[in-house]
Write a structure and sequence with these properties.
Pfam family, one (chain B): ArsP_1
Largest sheet of chain A: none
Oligomer: heterodimer
Number of domains of chain B: 2
Radius of gyration of chain A: 20 Å
Order of helices and strands of chain A: HHHHHHHHHH
Distance between the termini of chain A: 28 Å
Membrane topology (chain B): Multi-pass membrane protein
Strand content of chain B: under 5%
Family (chain B): Belongs to the UPF0718 family.
Distance between the termini of chain B: 35 Å
Subcellular location (chain B): Cell membrane
Number of helices of chain A: 10
Keywords (chain B): Cell membrane, Membrane, Transmembrane, Transmembrane helix
Number of strands of chain A: 0
Structural class of chain B: mainly alpha
Helix content of chain A: over 70%
């Protein structure tokens, strides 16, 4: 019994979502089935991408020397770090949450907060496949203008976030990693 | 699988082989770690994905379209930005959706704000972001992204 409670506590969100589905199945089965159907696209996307993401995260964590990350994405990586972060984010695959484990490892290995914001944001909005789609449906002018404005915004945001958030604000990085080993 | 997903797998496999040649023991142990990382996050990811399915049932794309096509531009821009923050729609659905709006002569300001918050602000993925980077980082990044999305869209309205 205690074990089950622990599991529920550890997976609060999953418990909440499961309960919602359970209730919805009882109250409105059609909507519940529709919701499951809607979710399947995302589950498939996740299964296609996340295994590779976790392998890359673990490889960076264990096999890439801290110095390499510190030099290329650290506080003093300067212009090179910014460009590299934009490239990493823009040529990525998958939704923004796929960037979370990788970025967490990068920050632990010495990447600066501002470069992490650049990677996360460009991963989210200025991915190349997305831009191609955008140009197709909304025109090159719309795509290009939004792209430029987004890059400017990301640069401002990366600076602003780094003013408020220090690397030490990222929760118990060391502890979690030891647990995982 | 799209081209970029295939590319991701290709890079992953190449990295794996290169590191395996460099340090076999370390690389094998990093695979164990990958498994543990996945175990650690998968429950929450699944929860988020099924939450998205629920949200899309109650805020379906045609309702989103109605909001974006509203003639009160400022109001519809803010509402579009909010909807974009809550939902997570794949690009191949989102672009045709907004494309048809533009064809009908709708303002591009709400459309730009929707497209930007859709991917950059994640209320649904917030629990995952918080777990990885802490509350402070997640709150500040999402709030700033929302504000800048509005900034981007109004500026686009002026420039186009």
């Amino acid at each position: 019994m205690n074990n089950i409670l622990m599991k529920i506590k550890k997976n609060k969100l999953l418990t909440l979502v499961s309960l919602t589905y359970l209730i919805l199945f009882l109250v409105n089965t059609d909507k519940a089935i529709l919701s499951v159907k809607n979710s399947m696209y995302y589950v498939k996307e996740m299964l296609e991408i996340m295994p590779a993401i976790f392998v890359i995260t673990a490889l960076i964590e264990k096999n890439v020397p801290k110095k390499v990350i510190l030099n290329n994405l650290g506080e003093n990586s300067g212009f090179k770090g910014i460009i590299l972060s934009f490239i990493l984010g823009s040529f990525s695959a998958g939704p923004i949450y796929a960037a979370f484990p990788i970025c967490r490892t990068l920050i632990k290995k010495g990447a600066s907060v501002s470069n992490i914001v650049i990677i996360l944001s460009s991963w989210a909005v200025i991915k190349v496949p997305m831009l191609l789609n955008e140009a197709k449906f909304l025109g090159i002018k719309f795509m290009f203008l939004r792209w430029i404005l987004t890059i400017i915004s990301i640069l401002c945001m990366s600076y602003l976030v780094s003013l408020f958030v220090k690397r030490s604000n990222v929760p118990n990085i060391e502890k979690k990693i030891i647990e995982l080993n | 699988m799209d081209l970029f997903t295939i590319l991701l797998w290709f890079i992953t496999i190449i990295l794996f082989i290169v590191f395996l040649g460099k340090d076999k023991k370390k690389t094998i142990s990093s695979m164990k770690m990958a498994k543990n990382l996945m175990k650690n996050m998968i429950g929450e990811i699944i929860a988020v994905l099924f939450l998205i399915g629920l949200i899309l049932t109650f805020i379906p794309p045609h309702i989103i379209k109605d909001f974006m096509g509203n003639s009160k531009v400022i109001l519809s821009t803010i509402v579009s930005a909010l909807i974009g923050s809550i939902t997570l729609i794949p690009a191949f659905v989102a672009f045709p959706l907004v494309g048809s709006l533009v064809d009908r002569g709708a303002s591009i300001i709400p459309i730009a704000s929707f497209l930007t918050t859709l991917t950059m602000v994640g209320i649904v993925t917030f629990p995952l972001e918080k777990k990885n980077f802490g509350t402070k980082f997640a709150v500040i990044r999402n709030v700033l992204s929302f504000v800048f999305a509005l900034f981007i869209s109004f500026l686009m309205g002026v420039l186009i």
